[in-house]
Amino acid sequence: MAFELPTLPFSTTALAGAGMCQETLELHHGKHHQAYVTALNGFVESKPELQGKSLEEIVLFANGKADIAPVFNNAGQHWNHIVFWKNMSPTGGKIPGKLEAKIAEDFGSVTAFKDAFKAAATTQFGSGWAWLVQGADGKLKAVKTPNGSNPLATGEGKVLLGIDVWEHSYYLDFRNRRPDYVTNWLDKLANYEYAEAQLG
């Protein structure tokens, strides 16, 4: 069964007031994410060893294999973007109580968490992602991954939040100001209710 582009959980105009314009969403979701899905389906059709595997199984199977790096890149990016769309909300930026308490426990404060997350996102050279994960020890931490990789592949923990820092995510809205994009995302777009629901 072919992989499909997920429907956005909001309209393409819903995030404009919070710093992500309609054109960004239409290009990012309808063009970039669709291209990853299309390419991944092509690989699955041509490679019997991928058929019947879930998306997560393909990411783990292809991870670290140079001969099928394009499979990993497209599967990873499909997985990452599924998370990314769920990670945003027109009413984002508000951290619910249980998650806020956990953040304060593990980072020291909400400010310290945002600083750590911003550092991960802005120091990822070139394309990639920053994540809030819950490690095997139960503690929250901010990590980054290059290109299409993710914490599923690296084993760094369960994803609570993930931000795309590829330039197509923010260039129309923030030009080359990645730090401003990340700050705006944390303060206005991040769906912390989704993140709280992922807590173990």
First-to-last CA distance: 31 Å
How many helices? The count is 9
Identify the CATH class of the largest domain. Answer: Alpha Beta
Please give the radius of gyration in angstroms: 16 Å
How would you sum up the global shape? globular
Mean residue pLDDT: 98
Fourth CATH level, the homologous superfamily of the largest domain = Iron/manganese superoxide dismutase, C-terminal domain
Question: Regions with pLDDT < 50 over 5+ consecutive residues?
Answer: none
CATH architecture of the largest domain: 3-Layer(bab) Sandwich
The helix/strand series, from N terminus to C terminus, equals HHHHHEEHEHHH
List the helices and strands and how they pair.
Elements: H1 22-46, H2 55-62, H3 69-86, H4 97-107, H5 110-122, E1 128-134, E2 140-146, H6 151-154, E3 158-164, H7 171-174, H8 178-189, H9 192-198
Task: Looking at this protein, list some descriptive labels.
9 helices, minor pseudopilin epsh fold, 2 domains, mainly alpha, single chain, 200 residues
